[in-house]
User: What shape does this take?
Amino acid sequence: MRHRDEDSGVQTLMAARLKQPGFLRGGLGILIGIAFSALLTWVVRSSTGHSTFHHYLSSEAILTVSLIAAPLAFLVGLGGFDYWFYWAAGKKTRPEDHSSHGAYTWKDYFRINTDHKVIGIQYTVNSFFFLLVGGLIAMLMRAQLAQPGSHFVDANTFNGLFSVHASLLIFLFIIPVFAGLGNFVIPLMIGAPDMAFPRLNALSFWLLPIAGLMMLGSFFAPGGAFADGWTAYAPLSDTAPVGQTFFSMAVQFAGASSIMTALNFLVTIITMRAPGMSFFRMPLLVWANFATSLLVVIATPFIAASQFFILLDRGLHFNFFNAAKGGDVLMYQHVFWFYSHPAVYIMMLPGFGIISEVIAVKARKPIFGYRMMAFSLLAIVGLGFTVWAHHMFTSGMAAWIRIPMAITTAIIAVPTGIKIFSWLATLWRGVLHLDTPMLFALGFLTTFTLGGISGVMLAMIPFDIHVSATYFIVAHIHYVLFGGSLMTIFAGVYYWFPKMTGRMFDERLGKWHFWTTFVFFNLTFAPMHILGLEGMPRRVSTYASQFAGLNLFISLASFGLGISTLVFLYNMVTSWRGGPKSVSNPWRALTLEWQVSSPPPVFNFDRLPTVVGGPYEYGVPGAVHGIFAPTPAAAGSGVLREPSR
Amino acid sequence: MVAAACAAIAIAIGIVISYLIHWFPVQASTQAKNTDRLYHVLVIASIPIFVLVVSVILYSVWQFRMRPGEELKDGPPIHGNTRLEVFWTAIPTVLLLGLVGYSFVVLKENEQGRPAKEVQIQATGEQFAWSYTYPPSVTGGAPLKSDQLYVPLDQSVYFNIRAKDVIHAFWIPAFRLQEDAVPGITTHWRVTPTRLGTYPVVCNLLCGLGHSLMRSKVHVVTQQQFHSWVAGQMSASAGGAASSTGSSG
Ligand code: HEM
Ligand SMILES: [Cu+2]
Ligand SMILES: [Cu+2]
Assistant: This one.
C-alpha cells in the first residue's frame, strides 16, 4: 500500500512539475516540437507524392522543421509565453507582483526572470561562455595553421571551426554582451525601475542560448558543422550539408533576440527617463545604445531575410540563388551586407558608450564635446546604411556602385575620428586614474585607431582589390572587433563589476590581464596585415610554404592570448565569490547607477531620482547629476547632495 | 616641446620603416606599380595620425596621471571648444576626400579603356581548379582550352572570368588584381604584365573543401614565346592529344 502511495505521489509531483513552467516542461516541449515536425513533414511529403521516411531528404526535412518548432516549443515549456497566453485566452493573468524580480541563489539565473539586473547578468555570463567556446575554437584553428600542410584537423572540420568561431563571437558574444551590459546599466542610468517590457526582455534572453547551442550542435549534424564562414555566401550555402540549416536558424533566433532588445531599449530610453533627464543630459552609454538600437531594428530583418532565402533554396528549391534557374547570386551579398555592415557598428557603438563613461570618470573631467559625441553617433547610424557594398568591391557587381560607396566609406571615418579626438581631449589635463578599466580604455584607443586606419585603406578601391578576402581583412576585423569591441567590453565589465556583483575585482590580476592581452593581441594580429599583403588568402586550412614563419609566430602568440583570458576568468570567478565588498560608488562617478547600493536594490531606486545636470560635471564644484526624493521613512534627510546650480 | 619633437621623430622613423618593410610580393604589372604607390601614400598619411593619437595618450599618462595625494582631485571642467571641434572635423574630411580622390585616379589608371591590341583570355573556376580558354582572336583557329595560364609580357590582357559551380575569386597577387568568378555572370579584369616569371594564381573566395589548395601558376613570357606556346598547344590538340595535360611550362 505504502509503495503505491509513494508512486502515485511521485507521479502527481511529476505531473505537477510538467504543468509548471521550467526546464522539465521545456524538455517536453522539445519532444512535442520534434513529433510535430515529423508529422508535418510526413503529411506534406506524402500528400505531394514524395517518398516516405526512408529517404534521407525526409529526415533532413524533419530536422529543418524541428530546428524551428522545437526551440519555440521549448520556450513555451519554459514559460516564456505564459503571461501572454493567459491574457490571450481571456484567463485570469497573474498580476505582476514582481515575485520574479531579483536573484537570491545561483539557481534563479536559470529561470525566466523579469528583473533587468538579473537578465543583464544572464546575458553577460551567457555571452562570456560563448566567448570562451569561440576562443577555444580559435586555438584549434591556430594549432592547425601553425605549419603548412598539417593534419591536425581535416579541411571540412577546419571550415566548420572558423565558421562557428566567427558566428559565435559575432552573434553570441559581441552583440549580446553589449545588450547585457546595457540591460543592467541603462535602466539604472536613466533612473527607471526596470526596462519597459520586462517579459519581452526575459524572452529575448532565452532565445540566445538556443541560438548558441544550435550553432555548436551543428558539429553533430550529418556532414559536419556549417562550413562557409559567418557570411554563408550562396550558392555554396545552398548546396552545403544540413549543418548549414543550423546556421540559418540560429541567426533567426539570435536576430529575433536582438530586435526585441533593441525595441525594449528604444521604448525604455524614450519613455522612462527620470524627471529632468533630457536627451542631452543622458550619459553617452545611453546615447550609444539608443543609436545601436536604431541600427538593430532597421538592419536585422535583412539578415533574417537572407537566411530565409537560403532556407527556402535548400528546403524547397526556390532557386533564389541558383544561376542556372535564373537566380541572382549577387543579390544574397547585397541583402547580407545591408545588415552586416550596420552590424559592425552594432558591434562598436555600445563600446564607444562604455569608453565615454570610463574615460570621463577615470580622467575626472567632463567629456570633451558631449554634443558632438552624441551627434557623431547619429551620423554613424545614418551613414552606416550607405556603405554596405564596400564589402563587395571585388564581387563582380556593377562597377559604378563602387564609387559612391568608397566615398561614403571614407566619410564615415569622420564621425569615428571625432570620437577619438574628443576622448583624447578629455584625457588632456585630467587626473588619470590608471586602473584596469582605464588601461583597457587607453588600449582600446590605440588598437582601434589602427583598425580604423586599415578600414580607411580598405575604402581605397585599387588597394582593396588586392587585399579583399585576404589575411589583411582578418587583421582589420580583429583590430576593430578584438582591439576595439572586446577591449571596450573588458573595460566595461571591470568598470561595472562592483555594481553588478557588489564586490571588487583583484586590481593586480586586472593589470596582468590587460598587459598580457594588449601585448599578445598585437603580436597575434599585426603580422596578419603582412600575410595578406603578401598573398595569403583567408579561410584556408593550409598555405604556401613561404608563409610558414609568420604563421608559426602568430600561432604561438595566439596561445599567449588564450592564456591571458584565463587570468580574466580566474579574477572574475574568485572575485565574484569572495572579493572584498564594494561600496556603492567606488569610482566617485556621477551617473545614477552609482548612487544606489552595490548591487542595487531589487527595484533600483528606493527614492526617486530627479536629474538636475549633465552626467559628467567632474571638476565643477558641488555639481551633481541627480538628486533623490526623501524616503517616506526618513523624510527630510534623504537628499544625498544638494544641487548647487 | 620635447614631446612634440619625440612625436616628429617617431613619425619620421615610422615613414622610414614603412619603406624598409617588405610589404608586397614582386611587382609584375603596371597595375601593381600603381597600387603599391597608392599603398605607400596611404601609409604615409596614416603614420602621423597614429603617432598623434599614441603621443597624446602617452603624454597624458606621463603628465596627467594621478599622483599620490590627488585621489580626490578632479580635472578642470572643460566642456569643449567649438573651434577645435570644427578643426578636427574639417581636416580629416579634407584628408579623406583627398585620399579617396587619389584612389579614383589610380583606379582609372588601372582600369583604362581597351587598347588597340589586347589579348583576351577566359578564366573559368570550378571546384577546385582554374581552366583557361584562349579564343580564336588569340589562336587564329579554334578556341584553345588549357589548364595552364600563359600571358605575354608588356601587352594588355583582358580576362573574362566565369564560374561553373560556386563563387571563386581569380586573384594574382603579383598583379595586385582579383575579381570574383560568379555563377551566371561574367566578370573581368585587365592587366599589363611587366615582369617575366612564374607567379601564383590563388582562389581567394571560400569555395568548399579544396579551396585551400586551389592554387596554380601564371607564366609571364615574351610575346614571341606566348605565340609559339599557343601554336604548340594548338598542334598538340590537333594531333589528338588531350589538351595540354602533362605538358608543363
Ligand atoms: C573607420 C571605420 C571603418 C572603415 C572605413 C571600414 C572599412 C571596411 C571595408 C572597406 C571592409 C571590406 C574589406 C573587404 O572585404 O574587402 C571592411 C571589412 C570589415 N570590417 Fe571594417 N571598417 C571600419 C570600421 C569597422 C568597425 C568599427 C568594425 C567592427 C567593430 C568593422 C568590422 C569589419 C568586419 C567584420 C569586416 C569583414 C567582414 C567579412 O568579410 O567577414 N570595421 N571594413
Ligand atoms: Cu563594412
Ligand atoms: Cu576557392
User: Anything to note?
Assistant: Chain B touches chain A through 82 residues (CB under 8 Å).
